[in-house]
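To the team - zinc ion complex, inputs and output below.
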Amino acid sequence: MAKCPVCGAPLDWRDIIDQMLTLDNFSELLKSKDDFIKALEDFTFKCPHCGEEFYGKFLPKDEAEKVFDLLNDFKGSIDWENKKVRIRLNQLLALDKMLEEWDKRVKERKL
Ligand SMILES: [Zn+2]
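Output:
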């Protein structure tokens, strides 16, 4: 799970993306995974726990890629008027990881 590189506190992807929603071209970024990841890596985030700033490149890239998919898969995932993420990204990521593990186990059993 994503952690603050300064204080180590766990971060909520919803907070992270909320910060990125201040970008004027955010809706454009959702059209291309490469553009989204690049913008995320260069973005300066502020940790809600310690208040320190850090670059998005310190966040786990595999999770960032899944966040991109989740934001695109769920209709209405973003409240554009209030610039807020509506879906619980951390819970969905955890669920996604669990299903992956389960899938792996089922496949191993078949071999
Ligand atoms: Zn922190």
